[in-house]
Amino acid sequence: MSKIFISHSSRADPFAAWVREAVKGGLAGHEVLIDMDVLRPGDEWCAVLYHWLAECHAAVVLLNREALGSTWVRREVNILLWRRALGSPLEVVPAIIGDLSTEDIESAGFGELEPLQMARLGQVKRTPEAAGRLAATIVGRLAGLPAGEDKSPMAKWTKAVSEALRKVENRDSLVDAAQELLVEETYLDQVRDPVVGCTFLAHQLLAQGHGRRLYLAIAQMADFTPVEWLSRLIDKVGATWVDGEAARALLAFGAGRPGIVALNARRVRTAQQYVDRATCYAETGFEYETVPAVAGEFFLEEFMSECERAVEKLWGLEPPDTVEDIPPGQMPVDMLFLIVDPGATRRDLVAQGMRAVLGRFPWLIMVLLTGEQLPTDAELAAWQLTDVLKLEPALGPEEEFNARHVIGLLRRLLTKVRGGLMVGAG
Predict the structure, then answer these.
(1) How many beta carbons lie within 10 A of that of residue 279, not counting itself?
(2) For 309-343, how does the pLDDT look when each residue is reduced to its tens digit (9 = 90+)?
């Protein structure tokens, strides 16, 4: 039986409710998952929704003005499109059920749905009969389910975390961990379930940044987890603090498509974690290296040399092979990220070096650390950098430090367990 998720906002829209119910009726024989069944007004978190979004085989997104303004619909769409961008066979059917224009959809941040062939009725009276016709179109788009097995990096990431959780020898500690993650009492039985419990908890760990609660949750399980598996678990959750929507923007480039990305971060490790988060720690298909931009008398030549050495690593070249051995016109099959740490070097000089590097290697994705603030459009123009992707929402003033703090606590936790000390959650 296929699982089909319906994303919508229909509390104040009778037509949306008619379409939703007609779609549900037309999908008899499938397991239909509807967010209104679990969400309450004002909810900022609902454990089961993230589980549904990660597990569903297909999704229907009903768009009206209420949906365009809904934080939850935006989160749901982000996760669904993230799965697709990483190669999941997930089918997504968007449908316009309100008086929306293309401009309305794009300005609300849902423009990525447009290439998926939106179902729509056009200018007709909004009646139950019209809702039924639109629902029939939507259901028809879902013919042929289920799709193939999901082998995307996101699915593999979840599987790796689930496997580590299965090594926890005390199941009560899994429930304790879920409570630290604020999983509602209603869904704790899912954590206790011997079949799906570890997968459900894995989805909670990977869904969004939990701050210190991530540390507290893993601490609940630490004494009951073999050290090797505890280490693997910690390694797999370090980037979950990164905002998923901001990270997913990195996937817009694709292999062989060059670009410049601005990230308001101070540390190279932060940029690496953005790539890790975007790619779900994929073992193949994505590579990154870092280069410093150290000012000197011959900055451009030295910067180019540093970038050349980084490119050789990105391509997996070993001596005597160098960048000169890359065949002219050869395009990489992987997305290759080069993270640039400008340090105290003048930004206009760094930008000049980056332009030169992209001219030499026109398939690189260069990520520029910009410190506490994202550059303004005027600053980018002054640096002669065009079509720069700013990763937004931007990092808050303490966000980068707080992430390092939590990761440091997790490392200390691992050290304590290796030393045979009892570990509490405090």
Answers:
(1) 26
(2) 999 999 999 999 999 999 988 999 999 999 999 99
